């Protein structure tokens, strides 16, 4: 683990204590079983706002604490451990990052304080197909009057039902596959022509498909430069990938701890099953992989904080390695628990389902292995 400052250690301890006492997995079950449309509990979200988590990466000039992405990662790791459902990642990390990266001063003043106080839930509406492809944007934005008219659809939008503001990459020129010709727009979710359709996902989170039918967006809602949105979008996505890597590490960590505890207490054939050499070796290998993933995740978050030249490769390395470990660890969690691991009453299945969704968000392992190789010139 990276050497943490005193402030970071306090925030990590606060997150550990709060998630375990105020947002255990039982809270997630209650939300799931209650079929809450927003897919998170309002009191959970309000507590996060009051603790200042929504302002971690926002500069002090806009109401935040500007403590950086590594600090935010410590919080996401703990929320990942307990499957805490909230818009924290989508809004306070991805949404806030969009404005800090590409926003002008007026946009930052107008939106960032509202993200910090929770009055705005912002999310990125990017994907248009079954696979991650930032350059495959096809949603059309045509010049009309003092702004643009948007037509098209976005899929698998995180917190899509609860969001009040959408960051929408749209195509102002060129064709899908071109990196040029993409423009970022800020679209309030209540704008005429925006319609949302709730998705039922295996991890019971708040995803939605969103349609845009002749949606009028004024020119002042362009985030960055016309036709030049791909660069800022790439920066934004790498922040999302690194932050998600931290959440994935937390989820996989908890799966490891649950498995280890079971190996230490479950008796079979007259002895503790952890005493069987084959299972002991598997646990040791998993622990080694877990620590490797932590190094990758912390390296990516630190690179963002330091504006390092190798941020892109570290973000992809982090997402790929976290995805690989999470996939294996969630499988091992089920397998080593045997029959009980297959029941809904036991939490293992919840971790497996969440793992499968996180693995594929913002690019799966194959996507990032390929991207990492390309960045390094292979």
What can you see in these coordinates?
- With 378 residues, this protein is an alpha+beta fold.
- It has 3 domains: 115 residues, Acyl-CoA dehydrogenase/oxidase, N-terminal domain (Butyryl-Coa Dehydrogenase, subunit A, domain 1, Orthogonal Bundle); 105 residues, Butyryl-CoA Dehydrogenase, subunit A, domain 2; 145 residues, Butyryl-CoA Dehydrogenase, subunit A, domain 3.
- Helices cover 51% and strands 15% of the residues.
- The chain contains 11 helices and 10 strands.
- A 4-stranded mixed beta sheet has the order 1-4-5-8, covered by helices on one side. It has a 4-stranded antiparallel beta sheet with strand order 2-3-7-6, with no helix packed on it.
- The longest helix has 36 residues.
- The protein is globular.
Strand content: 5-15%
By DSSP (H or I, 4+ residues per run), the number of helices equals: 11
Shape, per Cα inertia axes:
globular
Q: First CA to last CA: what distance?
A: 30 Å
Order of helices and strands: HHHHHHEEEEEEEEHEEHHHH
Name the assembly state. Answer: single chain
Q: In CATH, what is the class of the largest domain?
A: Mainly Alpha
């Amino acid at each position: 683990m990276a050497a943490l400052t005193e402030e970071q250690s306090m925030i990590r301890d606060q997150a550990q204590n709060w998630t375990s006492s105020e947002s255990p997995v039982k809270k997630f079950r209650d939300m799931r079983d209650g079929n809450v449309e927003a897919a998170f509990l309002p009191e959970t979200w309000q507590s996060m706002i009051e603790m200042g988590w929504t302002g971690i990466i926002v500069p002090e000039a806009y109401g935040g604490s500007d403590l950086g992405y590594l600090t935010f990662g410590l919080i996401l790791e703990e929320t990942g451990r307990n499957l805490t459902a909230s818009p924290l990642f989508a809004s306070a990390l991805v949404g806030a990052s969009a404005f800090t990266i590409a926003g002008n001063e007026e946009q930052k003043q107008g939106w960032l304080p509202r993200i910090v106080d929770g009055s705005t839930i912002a999310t990125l509406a990017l994907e248009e197909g079954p696979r991650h492809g930032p350059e495959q944007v096809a949603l059309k934005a045509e010049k009309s009057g003092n702004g643009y008219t948007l037509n098209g659809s976005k899929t698998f939008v995180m917190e899509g039902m609860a969001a009040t503001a959408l960051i929408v990459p749209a195509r102002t020129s060129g064709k899908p596959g071109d990196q040029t010709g993409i423009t970022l727009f800020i679209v309030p979710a209540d704008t005429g022509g925006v319609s949302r359709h709730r998705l039922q996902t295996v991890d019971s989170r708040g995803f939605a498909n969103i349609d845009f039918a002749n949606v009028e967006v004024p020119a002042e809602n362009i985030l960055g430069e016309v036709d030049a949105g791909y660069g800022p979008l790439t920066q934004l996505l790498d922040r999302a990938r690194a932050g998600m890597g931290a959440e994935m590490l937390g989820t996989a960590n908890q799966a490891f701890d649950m498995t280890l505890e079971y190996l230490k207490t479950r008796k079979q054939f007259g002895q503790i099953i952890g005493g069987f050499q084959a299972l002991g070796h598997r646990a040791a290998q998993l622990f080694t992989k877990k620590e490797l993933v932590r190094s990758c995740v912390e390296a990516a978050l630190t690179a963002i904080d330091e504006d390092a030249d190798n941020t892109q490769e570290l973000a992809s390395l982090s997402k790929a390695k976290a995805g690989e470990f999470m996939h294996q660890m969630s499988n091992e969690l089920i397998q080593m628990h045997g029959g009980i691991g297959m029941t809904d009453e036991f939490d293992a299945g919840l971790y497996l389902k969440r793992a499968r969704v996180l693995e594929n968000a913002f690019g799966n392992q194959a996507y990032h292995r390929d991207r990492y190789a390309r960045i390094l010139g292979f």
